[in-house]
Amino acid sequence: MSTEAVQAARRIAEEVLLPDAEAVDAAGRVPAAHLTALDDAGLTGLAAQRPSLDERVDVAAALAGGCLATAFVWAQHQGALAGALSAAGPGSRFAPDLASGRSRAGVVITAVRGPSPLRLRTADDGWTLSGSALWVTGWGIAQQLRVAAVADDDTITTALVDVGPGMRADPAPLVAANASATVTLTFDDVAVPADRFLEAVTWETWAAADAAGLAGNGALALGVAHRAAVFAESDALLDEVAAARAGLLAAGVDELPAARGACSALAVRAAAALAVHDGGRSVIRGSRADRLLREAHFLLGFGSRPAIRADLLARFGA
Question: Which sequence ranges form a coiled-coil region, renumbered to this chain (predicted)?
Answer without folding.
Answer: none
